[in-house]
Design brief:
The chain is of the alpha+beta class. The chain has 8 helices and 16 strands. The protein binds adenosine-5'-diphosphate (ADP).
Length: 464
């Protein structure tokens, strides 16, 4: 079964289920009908024989003509006679009632017992006999005479009478079932084909994507809410994520090679220049210093890049727990105010005990990045102000400086990887700090924004 298509499997299972249900249903209905009809036959036999039993009377005397009823039947029997009322019915609805005694038939029809051995009499009990001409029910009633003799009233009926209709219905049903099954298979085929059409579309689309290696392609199966549409949507989401991550990877590779090209070129040109002719000791020392600076820069680019890539890759699995944001920011402010870089003063106003669900290490790194940027791009004798407030359910962190500020053209670019403002080129840095800040904020579902004016200063907001 494994090698057959889903459509074939559905049709086979569907048809098998229909066949099974039809057979079980028909058999059950026919069996119940047979049972009910046979019970009806037995009940009718009992009541017919019991009714007839009241119509026969034995008189232990010689019959005289004066009581004769022209419609009744009189039979001489033993020392008297039997009077059989005209209401006695010998044959009705296939039921035959006759009178017997130990010597055989007294009155009625004996044809059934000509070919079959006479079964023993059993008072008021139903028995079944099987003959060549069919199965019969027998019901006996013992009648006593006043002179202590006994005779028997025996009713017989074919157990199959009335069943002919059931048999007819059964035959008809078994003739109709194959037609029903054929209809079920055709219906099943049409339903399966319609229901599984999106699967073929999904398969075609997936194959197209695989063959063409084009992750921008999507599965188009129109509107719908069923499981197949949901699979198609999941596939599309997966393709989108894959496309994004491939793009990110390509971007990363090109960014790294672009960023590393400058220090590598500087190092290689410096080596070439130094080795071209004999140099003084000072010139060698200068060359080595330059090479050392450039290699440190390369090292920090590689380190930052690796930790950024790791952060991006593991963004969904970063562990977060309830943390005291106030304590975290306050400690950082106190520690970093010791820098005293460019004689800048750091002040803070932190509302105590503001909690968030976050990753302590990443939140510290994000805040430290913003504060160190404020120092790096701050002016001589300038100020930094860090605040944390909880208003209207929003926890707002703000890092403000009165430094060089950011130009209008640059303000949208500062979040890009490796972007460095023109005025920042001379400072230390890799252009990855704010990309980290943005990624960490997004991991914590926090909103980030900036307000800045050239030469006046910048304000970075993060709202949790
Ligand atoms: P880096 O500081 O290593 O250059 P960042 O990603 O932290 O990288 O910042 C990117 C750019 O955004 C910086 O080069 C700078 O031009 C600008 N910038 C960031 N913070 C500030 C700030 N507080 N004041 C002015 N410019 C800033």
């Amino acid at each position: 079964m494994k090698k057959y298509s889903l459509k074939t499997k559905i049709i086979v299972w569907f048809s098998a289920a229909i066949i099974l249900v039809s057979l079980i249903g028909t058999t059950a209905v026919l069996s119940v009908s047979r049972f009910v009809i046979q019970k009806e036959i037995r009940d009718t036999l009992i009541s017919a024989v019991e009714d007839n039993a009241d119509e026969v009377e034995y008189y232990a005397e010689k019959k005289t003509a004066e009581f004769d009823d022209p419609y009744d039947i009189y039979i001489e029997y033993k020392n008297g006679y039997l009077e059989i009322d005209d209401d006695f019915i010998k044959q009705m609805n296939g039921i035959t009632t006759s009178l017997f005694d130990e010597n055989g038939l007294i009155y009625g029809d004996n044809s059934l017992f000509k070919s079959v051995k006479m079964p023993p009499y059993k008072n008021k009990s139903i028995s079944k006999i099987i003959t060549e001409s069919g199965t019969y029910y027998i019901y006996d009633i013992e009648k006593k005479t006043t002179d202590n003799n006994c005779y028997w009233m025996r009713g017989t009926v074919s157990a199959e009478s009335g069943l002919s209709q059931v048999n007819h219905i059964a035959k008809l049903t078994f003739m109709i079932i194959p037609i029903l099954i054929a209809l079920a298979i055709i219906g099943g085929y049409i339903i399966a084909r319609k229901a599984l059409a999106p699967v073929s579309q999904i398969n075609d689309a997936a194959q197209n994507i695989r063959e063409g290696n084009d992750l921008s392609k999507r599965i188009v199966i129109g509107e719908g809410n069923d499981e197949l549409h949901s699979i198609a949507n999941s596939f599309n989401e997966m393709f989108e994520r894959l496309e994004k991550s491939f793009e990110q990877e390509q971007q990363l590779t090109s960014d790294i090679s672009h960023e590393l090209r400058t220090p590598v070129t500087v190092i290689s040109s410096q080596c070439q220049y130094t080795l071209e002719s004999e140099r003084t000791t000072e010139e060698y020392i200068e060359a080595i210093r330059l090479i050392s600076r450039q290699s440190r820069k390369m090292s920090s680019i590689i380190n930052d890049m690796l930790s950024f890539a790791r952060l991006e890759r593991n963004a969904d699995s970063i562990e977060k727990e309830k943390m005291n944001l106030s304590e975290c920011v306050e400690t950082l402010c106190e520690d970093m105010s010791m820098f005293g870089e460019n004689n800048i003063t750091l002040k803070h106003n932190i509302e105590p005990d503001i909690f968030i669900d976050g990753n302590f290490e990443l939140i510290s790194r994000m805040t430290a990045n913003l504060i160190s940027n404020a120092y790096r791009y701050g002016k001589e004798n300038g100020h930094i102000f860090v605040s944390l407030k909880n208003s209207d359910g929003k926890k707002a962190l703000c890092v403000e400086d009165d430094g060089i500020g950011i130009s209008e053209e640059a303000i949208d670019k500062i979040w890009n990887r490796f972007y460095r403002g023109d005025a920042s080129r001379s400072t230390k840095g890799t252009g990855l700090g704010l990309s980290f800040v943005k990624e960490i904020a997004s991991i914590h579902n926090a909103e980030i924004s900036v307000e800045s004016e050239l030469k006046k200063g910048s304000k970075f907001f993060i709202s949790f």
